[in-house]
Write a structure and sequence with these properties.
The chain is mainly beta. Helix content is 0%, strand content 41%. The strands form 2 sheets. The protein has a 9-stranded mixed beta sheet, with no helix packed on it. It has a two-stranded antiparallel sheet with strand order 1-2. Strand 7 and strand 8 form a beta hairpin. The two termini are 33 Å apart.
Length: 153
């Protein structure tokens, strides 16, 4: 909206070639459990919707935000309290991609790597919390790939 100074009733709509960029509203979810893993964007699991520019997150329709409460990748500069943006629609994962994985009813943030064994993947953390890094593809569900991070100081 634009308004000219000194003129009454001068409110005008700004044209499409303005300084404002397109944005997507990305939902922030509360938690991930074994019960809601297939329905993460349930209305009862959404805390708020955050407007994010499409230049930063082009596929915003397939993303969600989560406030992270774990220090498993703290040496990779992902700390407790960071807001992380995950993309749910990924075609393939490259070695070194940070993923949100569900294992044994709990969500973990890990660095993904393929192995030479068929059907086996490596999920690495900065600290070995699980005493396990090699997983069968069937026992782990990849929920999303990390595409952004927002830290509040």
């Amino acid at each position: 909206i634009k308004r000219e100074l000194g003129m009454a009733r001068s409110i005008q709509l700004v044209s499409n070639n303005s300084f404002y960029v397109d944005h997507s509203y990305i939902p922030e979810i509360k938690k991930i459990t074994a019960r809601n893993v297939n329905d993460l964007l349930n209305i009862y699991n959404i805390v708020a919707y955050h407007p994010v520019s499409k230049t930063f997150v082009p596929s915003g329709d397939n993303c969600f935000i989560m406030k992270w409460d774990d220090d498993s990748l703290s040496e990779s500069d992902i700390k407790r309290g960071d807001f992380l943006v995950f993309n749910r629609s990924f075609e393939s994962l490259e070695d070194g991609s940070v993923v949100l994985a569900m294992y044994d009813g709990r969500a973990y943030l890990r660095r993904f790597a393929k192995t030479s064994d068929k059907g086996v993947i490596r999920l690495e953390a900065d600290f070995n919390v699980l005493d396990k890094e090699l997983f069968d593809e069937k026992e782990v569900t990849i929920l999303g790939r990390l595409v952004g991070k927002y830290t509040v100081y």
